[in-house]
Amino acid sequence: xxxxxxxxxxxxxxxxxxxxxxxxxxxxxxxxxxxxxxxxxxxxxxxxxxxxxxxxxxxxxxxxxxxxxxxxxxxxxxxxxxxxxxxxxxxxxxxxxxxxxxxxxxxxxxxxxxxxxxxxxxxxxxxxxxxxxxxxxxxxxxxxxxxxxxxxxxxxxxxxxxxxxxxxxxxxxxxxxxxxxxxxxxxxxxxxxxxxxxxxxxxxxxxxxxxxxxxxxxxxxxxxxxxxxxxxxxxx
Length: 236
What we know:
It contains 11 helices and 2 strands, in the order H-H-H-H-H-H-E-E-H-H-H-H-H. It is mainly α. It has a single domain, classed as Vanadium-containing Chloroperoxidase, domain 1, CATH 1.20.144. The longest helix has 21 residues, at 99-119.
């Protein structure tokens, strides 16, 4: 029994190791570009989708089912990220060394989206009359700060945070390469369903999340710097 136990332990530890990357990969930049192209295309459907979801939310027969999407918002929220990292800290002690990179990747992705919000004023769907064309939802550049949350629709910071966090989790746990992106997709859907964002906002948020994740996990000086820091904390 003892030899079998040792083999099982070794296999388990190997199974939950971060995906090794022998050379930098630029796939994340391609994903970012694809999301931006999709966002431009989505401008054509932003208004109809927002109006359809507004009608659905006002329908007593449909609204209760749409509320289920709110369950997934926490994955793209700072509080949800913190709770998940506390859980990782307690349940997977062998990977505690990765927590700073996971946290930084998620928060930096959301931070980049917040910076973009200050550059582009766009009225949120729940605040917009939805009677004009899609360009009527945008306002003057560099004026979103004074508009407050109702004028900070573009892009979705929740989605950016969720995508950055999901990419970091896939880097640490490659076995979750389907689960974590799915949670990020559900966060994006929740932001559209609740009337906080248009589809194009969510797609640009996803692009921001991919871009930040690429810079923290794959290319540039930051991955190497984090590798050096983490080397001191990894179990020997």
